[in-house]
Amino acid sequence: MTQGLAGALRTWRTRRRVSQLELAVRAGTTQRHVSFIESGRSTPGRSMIIRLAESLEVPIRERNELLLAAGFAPAYPQRDLDDPRLAPVRAALDRILHGHLPFPAVIVDRHGDLVSANAGFHLLTRGVAPELLAAPVSVPRVLLHPRGLAPRIVNLDEWAWHIIDRVQAESVRNPSDRLARLASELAGLAPPRPRQLSPQYLGFAVPLHLRTGDRELRLLTTLTHFGTATDVTLAELRLEAFLPADDATSAALTELVTPGHQGRVAGSRHG
Fold first, then answer.
1. CATH number where 17 lies
2. Which positions fall inside the HTH cro/C1-type domain (predicted)?
3. Which residue among 11, 36, 69 closes a domain?
4. Domain-located, residue 56
5. How many structural domains is the chain composed of?
C-alpha cells in the first residue's frame, strides 16, 4: 500500500514540476522525509499526506486516493448533487445562474458535462441537434460540433482551439482519459489551427463571435469554481459565464431573453 502511495506522490510531484526540496518547504517538512516517503522507506501519517497533496494542488478526489493507498479512510466526502444535504448549494447555484440573466451561463462537471444552465444558454443552443442535447450533454462538444454551434461561430478557427487547448490543459493538470479523448475528438472537428493568433487577441482569451439570427453576438467567457469546497462533487463543478463584449451584444441578449425567466437546457442533470 505504501509503495502505491510512493509512486503516486512521485507522479504528482513530477507532473507539477516541483522538486523534493520545494515540496518539503511547502509542506513544512524536510527533503529527507519526502525522499523517504517516495522511496517507500517511510510511512507518512494522514495529516502529512494531506499537507503534501495540498502543496501539490492535488484535486481532492485524488487526495482521497492517496489516503486509500496509504491505508487511511478518505478525508473528503463525495455526495450526489441531489443529496438533501446539498440543497443549500443547489439553491445557491440556481441563484447564480439566474443572476447572470440575460447573459448565458452554465454549470459543468469536471468532464465538461452539463449540470445546469440558464435561459441565456438555452437561447444560444436553439437549433442544436437533439442528440447533442441528450444527457450527458458535453458542453465543449455542443460548442464545436458541426451539428452544434460550430456553423454559427464566426471566428471558429481561433475560438475552437481556445476551447481545445483548455480541455487538453485540464486533462494534463488533472489526468482524465475521458478528457484526453474529448480533446482528440474536438481537434478532429476543428479547422486547422491558425498559424498566428490575431494581434488583438495576443495575451488574452479569444472572444466568441456567434451568429444568432441576423445578429452577431460578441461574448467573453469566464470560468469560476468553488475555492474552498471540501466535497468532491462541489470541488469539481465549474461555472462558465458568457458575458457581452460590447453594448450591442448586451442589448441584444437583454431583448432576446425574457427578463425573469430561467429556462433549462434539455439533458441537464440538475433542475
1. 1.10.260.40
2. 9-63
3. 69
4. yes
5. 2
Joined grid coordinates for residue 270: 440538475
Q: In what order do the strands lie in the sheet with 238-244?
A: 114-117, 105-108, 238-244, 215-225, 208-212
Question: Structural domain of residue 64, as residue ranges?
Answer: 2-69
Tens digits of pLDDT across the chain (271 residues): 445 999 999 999 999 999 999 999 999 999 999 999 999 999 899 999 999 999 999 999 999 999 999 999 999 999 998 999 999 999 999 999 999 999 999 999 999 999 999 999 999 999 999 999 999 999 999 999 999 999 999 999 888 998 999 899 888 888 889 999 999 999 999 999 887 655 454 444 568 899 888 889 999 988 888 777 789 999 999 999 999 999 999 999 999 886 544 444 444 555 4
SS (H, E, C) the chain: CHHHHHHHHHHHHHHCCCCHHHHHHHHCCCHHHHHHHHHCCCCCCHHHHHHHHHHCCCCHHHHHHHHHHCCCCCCCCCCCCCCHHHHHHHHHHHHHHHHHCCCCEEEECCCCEEEEECHHHHHHCCCCCHHHHCCCCEHHHHHHCCCCCHHHECCHHHHHHHHHHHHHHHHHHCCCHHHHHHHHHHHHHCCCCCCCCCHHHCCCCCCEEEEECCEEEEEEEEEEECCCCCCHHHHCCEEEEEEECCHHHHHHHHHHCCCCCCCCCCCCCCC
Same domain, 141 and 191: yes
Residue 79 lies in a domain: no
- Nearest residue to 108 (alpha-carbon basis) of 265, 243, 251: 265
In terms of domains, do 100 and 132 share one?
yes
In terms of domains, do 231 and 170 share one? yes
Residues 23 and 100 in one domain: no
In a domain, 120, yes or no: yes
